[in-house]
Amino acid sequence: MNNTVLVGSQRSDIGNRRPKSRHEATAMTTMTQPITLDVSRNGTIRTLADQFTSNTTFLKELLQNARRAGASKVEVNYVDGILTLIDDGHGITDPQVLFCIGKSEWQDMDMMATENPFGIGFAAALFAADRITVESNGWCIDAHTADILDFKPLMLKSGDVQSGSRITLALTDALREEHQPLHPDNAAELFMGLAQAFPIDILFNGDPLPAPLRQVAGGAILESGVLQGKLLATTESELAQPWSSNIVVVLQGFVLTRLKRDFLNQPLFAGDFMVRNARAERAVPAPECSSVLHLDNTKVRARVPDRDSLIDAEAVYADIRCQLAAFFADRLVQAKANLSAGRFLASYADLCLRWRMAHLLNDMPLLADWVETINHLAAFGEASEYISIEGNLAPTDEIFLANIRFDDPDPISAVSTYLAATNTKVIDGFSRLDQGHWAKANTIDVEARERPSSNADKFRVQARPVSSISPISPIEENGALRFDWFNMERSIVVCDAIELTPNDARLPSVQVTQAAVYDMATRRLLITRNATRMDISTMFLSMDSYGESDNGTERDETQLHVDVSLVEQVQMLHRGDSPATIIENHLKASISHLTKALGGSHFSVSISDAGEIKVA
What we know:
It comes from Vreelandella rituensis. Residues 1-24 are annotated as: Disordered. This is ATP-binding protein. InterPro entries: HATPase_C_sf (IPR036890). By secondary structure, the chain is α+β, with helices and mostly antiparallel strands. It has three domains: 3-17 and 40-208, 2-Layer Sandwich (Heat Shock Protein 90), CATH 3.30.565; 220-338, no CATH class; 368-549 and 556-615, no CATH class. Helices cover 28% and strands 21% of the residues. A hairpin with a 2-residue loop joins strand 8 and strand 9 (207-208). Helix 12 runs antiparallel to helix 13 (341-354). It is elongated.
């Protein structure tokens, strides 16, 4: 056998036409004649080389060709940079087809409808190898890929392979670099990934590779394909088996590794099981515990040339999501009917929220993991404290809170003080619950940071001093102590206790005996006798010192010294038993601060009938 195989497109003269002269070009514009589409042969090849986004695409195409040829297995051998693929299919009938871009050997209508072959599979291999050998049905072609891509004729010789086919590639050095999938240390892992869902057996250097995601008989029939494997468990016996809510999506025997982000969200699509090292196994559930969606080739088409993304992906993904949502909704209803409330919540509460089936939880207890008790709302720079509850909460009339801004609570607000004093329960993820959930009727929407501009119908708490000592107005140059927080005048009231009364009649009033609270209604700072230095320090930190000023600039650190003096003054003030004692202690401890504040002037102190201290 000594025939010649031409390399190129189906028209051998494409790209070789003589340029027209100016006279010929001008004359052509005045003539009426048909114009046909032309393709540059050299340009097409150059463009094709840049289209493959993965340097392993050629492997998928060669494996697909073996499967289409009716092979029952593919033997892959890889030694010293030489990659050989041997299959037991019916072989390659026409060698010219291998070297014709855009023309597939699989031209019968049934194959075209179900497989959508592109006719570029072998061409992909030309860019991956320096030399290539193809043997099938008694013939052989052995050539350098550079000669093939230069469109040089190839000589067809007699070969030893009489059935099936054998393709040998001398891979380029670039594909065998250390971090490449076809580096000798990585190749076995690469082919394990390719084999995991492939419908026929793949052997690598003589060892059969597992295919746990391969499509088998049975499964749930969807419009887009077949869903099988570890489907959502609906009975106790099914739950006792290893199971995961992950879904692996497969098209034409290969896992789709590039799925749209919005497709991944419901519930949890595992796009890539290819990496099997220990780190990946910790992050991704084992394939045998997951469900596999095998997409229907006739309804879902892959995009040229890498097959790992879909044509019209947005519409296809949206349609698949709807189908899966309907399927799993039915399964969740079955699971709720078959399982105890506790078992159902532990297994599927989060899944119900992700699949927009939250209404199934409306008459069920609140999951313990979703509820916390406030123990302490911290000052800035500290950590707030929450206490986990034990056991799920059955439907009750208990009052809950929601939407608290945990990231920036105001520790001296009446609301924050009330929440910590009453150890009120907070529902995490409250907004995800269905509007018909029993807890919604007993939940108060709370902002832990009070603001003057807040809506009047927001949850508020009024702070009232109990057994208060006379109001005290610290003095600055302008006659009243002025803080930047809300930029308003305020007085400090020392008292035995602070009574906190919420504006929701369902909640009781409480008294606290160790706190520093700012009352929004009266614009007074309330400090209990038992307040600690930390309570008072927190008050000043919250009001002014280390946050941003009204214009967004950082505070000067020298403000720290002013705050220290204020803390010392207030600490002396609130420990006195009478106004006279307060003044005496205050003057002894801080006369230097007052003298400085008044510009060195002499002053006198008096107490009015109302108990207000005045300095003149």
